[in-house]
Amino acid sequence: MFEIVLLVATFLVSLVGGILLVFAIVVMPGLGALDDRGFLRAFKVIDRVIQENQPVFVFVWAGSILAVLIAVVLAATRFSGSVRTLALAAAVVYLIGVQISTFVNNIPLNNQLQALELDSMDTEDLAAARALLELPWNRWNRLRTMMACLSSVGFLVAVAQL
Questions:
Q1: Is residue 81 left, alpha or beta, with left meaning phi > 0 and alpha meaning psi from -120 to 50?
Q2: DSSP sequence for 126-152
Q3: In whole angstroms, how far apart are CA 92 and each of 4, 34, 41, 45, 100?
Q4: Is residue 96 within 8 Å of 146, Cβ to Cβ?
Q5: What is the domain partition of the chain in residue ranges?
Q6: Is the pTM of this model over 0.85?
Q7: What DSSP designation does 51 have?
């Protein structure tokens, strides 16, 4: 049972890492090339798809949390040695570095974005809103990406040691 859960957790954590990486190296740089209104509008639309619970995204994101938590319980209660240590370390890195970071940092920024009435904002307001969102969101996303990749490697090494 642990082996299957660990494989599922590894797969889903890796998918989340891929999503975050694509945002870091493709989506946000692409949006970054737009003017302020275009950037905010496009980012708002993309975020709205996620906030409206796109089913595959929800399955991957929420599934990764569930699989990691189950893997932690099984590793802590049924294993010892390096597999246990790697699984627990990878889980802590993932849950804190990706999930908690998302809920504490990126989601509040996304909610600020969703609250903007872009059509009623002038050039200065648009520039100010972008300045408050873009840099911190990208900074936190880069951290989440690195933590997801590190966690994925930890889980992969644990799987290889089974």
A1: left
A2: HHHHHHHHHHHHHHHHHHHHHHHHHHH
A3: 19, 37, 35, 32, 10
A4: no
A5: 2-160
A6: yes
A7: H
Residue 5 CA from chain centroid, whole number: 20
Place of tokens 């599934």: 63
Question: What's the CA gap between 110 and 156, in Å, rounded?
Answer: 31
Q: Can you tell me the distance from the alpha carbon of 152 to that of 68, in angstroms, rounded to the nearest whole number?
A: 11
Count Cβ atoms below 10 Å from residue 66 Cβ, excluding itself: 13
Which residues, other chains included, contact 97 with Cβ-Cβ below 8 Å and sequence gap of 6+? 143, 144, 146, 147, 148, 150, 151
pLDDT tens for 145-155 read 999 999 999 99
Residue range 73-94: average pLDDT? 92
pLDDT in tens, 84-128: 999 999 999 999 999 999 999 999 999 999 999 999 999 999 999
Other Cβ atoms less than 10 A from the Cβ of 152: the count is: 23
